[in-house]
Amino acid sequence: xxxxxxxxxxxxxxxxxxxxxxxxxxxxxxxxxxxxxxxxxxxxxxxxxxxxxxxxxxxxxxxxxxxxxxxxxxxxxxxxxxxxxxxxxxxxxxxxxxxxxxxxxxxxxxxxxxxxxxxxxxxxxxxxxxxxxxxxxxxxxxxxxxxxxxxxxxxxxxxxxxxxx
Length: 165
Fold this sequence. Notes:
The protein is mostly helical. Helix content is 65%, strand content 9%. It has helices at residues 6-33, 42-51, 60-67, 71-83, 105-125, 131-154, 161-164, and strands spanning 87-92, 95-103.
């Protein structure tokens, strides 16, 4: 497949920038609408909600991988979620030195409330869309995110400047 034109690439970059700005505005509005989940931790809570349906919970390292975040970022978010009673640390039955993360009932309720808020927002935003338009957008966004992720994985690493000195 041919590469998109420079103008098409520039337009796509502009639309991605718009989407990033909009996502930030939505997060700020949601945080203002509900203080049940500390600002900046909803994504971590949502990722945790996706992977802790198993009774044993998950390790913070696994959460970092699933969320695509640095372990230190996840550690700070988890500490805030634990402090707010949304997540608990339990001893790992397989390795008592480690702990696993488990959503509390309060955490599950806060996550469900946030998901309802986002669902209501999308219902209003997409009210004039036909179902096939929503399906097409969903498929296109999935393909775009998958392909960008792959392109990042295939990207040659930039040599460490300190190592070059």
